[in-house]
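Teaching assistant here, posting this on the class forum so everyone can see the example we discussed in section. The complex has two components, and the goal was to see what a joint structure prediction looks like when all of them are supplied at once.
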Amino acid sequence: MSTLERRYRHLLRAYPMDYRHDRGDEIVGTYLDLADPRRRWPSVADAADLVRGGLRQRLRAAGANDLAPGVRLAALLALTTAAFLAGFWALVEQYPPPAEAGVPVFGPFTSTGIVAWLAWLVVAVLVLVAPGRATRVAVAGAVLATVAVLLVSPVAGLPRPPLLVLVPQVALGVLALAVDSHLPLPARALPIVAAVGGYVFGHAYYWDAYRWSAEQVLPATGMVLLGVGVLLAVGLAMRRDWRGGWAVVVLLTPIGLLSVHILAGAVDGLGGAPRPTYPTLVGAALTVGLLGPAVLPAAVALRRRLGGSPSAPCPTCGTRR
Amino acid sequence: MDTPLREPTFLILTALAREPMHGYAIIGEVAALSDGRLSLRPGTLYGALDRLTDAGLVELDREETVDGRLRRYYRLSPTGDATLAAETERLRRNVEAATARLRARSVQPLAPRTAGGLA
């Protein structure tokens, strides 16, 4: 066995064991047929292809073929929500406290948050006019800008939006990275419509500083996102399409982070304390951040247990596992 | 299998329309059919073949070992044959409609529209 073949077989561990046993020789043989004989290491693209294929096969073995489309649906909803919030916060940024209040500001804006919100507004435009790689790069840039605002502002002594605002935006952004490259025009228009809607919504009502606005707007946005997700899940399930269910499962983490103020309030005082303490807020956010992603593998395992058939033959070679 | 077919799926079925093929040959044939635009990698190809097999469009034809490497040959099933024929017909009609429109436009240049209609 050559060094290259051994390395391909090492990467093949991304696949389930029984599938490796059935198809491993065939898959590795094809990689070797395609590879330059002088090559000693699999290319990065081949490694990514193997890992992606292995993950896809594990989902297929668990009967969760529709998880990937579900994640893409969740990504569009997350991107739309992130754009709505960016439009809303961009308005809040335009009304800094008066100078006599002595509150630090960032130039003509309330805080450094304006950098992140502008990056998100660029994403909302790009997904409409340049879907695909350009949009994903812009989403990654917006996520990094949001994280930079979160981390760099305190070091530079500049005011930033509260964690309550920035953390759910990062969670929505990470999910939005999975947005589909081949969306129809109406779907591509959703983020920019939501961003304009957020800005208009902010204008239509009186909104104060970040903290008070966040406590009102974020849980409501989370509830709307959950409602839309559930409605989509029910509507699609009526056509035996389970994407919506997976989308709701994936969206639970950002929805929980949007509602962290309510969750922390429920912990501090049954029924929801009006002002949960800072440690309770951080604790609630950490709990959501850890438990939320754990729901997905649990749901996949449950799907496998309910729908899996351990004695099913390999669909291609017919071998019984 | 949802229709219309995605381009890689359509080209894999088209590759298999001529004769049964193994994975390496399918990758080469898809690249040739797409004028080199589409370069399938094995992980992607075998995932697609699994889905096509699940959908009943592709079947296992035979197995061979060449230079110590296992090769499985795949062929279009009757359902796959019918699906490819239907999809090709749909695309052909679209191409004909678009070609007719474009030809008509090149023969009869677009006249500027008059605002307000007839007086």
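For the discussion questions: Chain B touches chain A through 23 residues (CB under 8 Å). Chain B has one domain: 7-103. Think about how each of these relates to the inputs above.
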